[in-house]
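Internal tracking record. Fields below are filled automatically when a chain is submitted to the structure queue. Please do not edit lines marked as system-generated. If the sequence contains nonstandard residues, flag them in the REMARKS field before resubmitting.
Queue: standard
Priority: normal
Entity type: single polypeptide chain
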Amino acid sequence: MCFRCWRALDREFVEVETAHGRVRIKVSRLDGEIVNFAPEYEDCARIAREKGVALKRVQADALRAYLNRQGLHS
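SYSTEM-GENERATED OUTPUT FOLLOWS
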């Protein structure tokens, strides 16, 4: 037998500063613990268009900025 249990995660947005501009990071938590985080696509796509930078570069820089802010990246 297979059982699925769906649970809505608490979410918040955190802004980070990159060389290209500010990007919101969507942070998901379960029981107070961070279980997922991702740069907001629309922010990254807008910046990529405006600055002529690859979307993947903007996303990677946003993730790096978030990890640095959390003390998880050197």
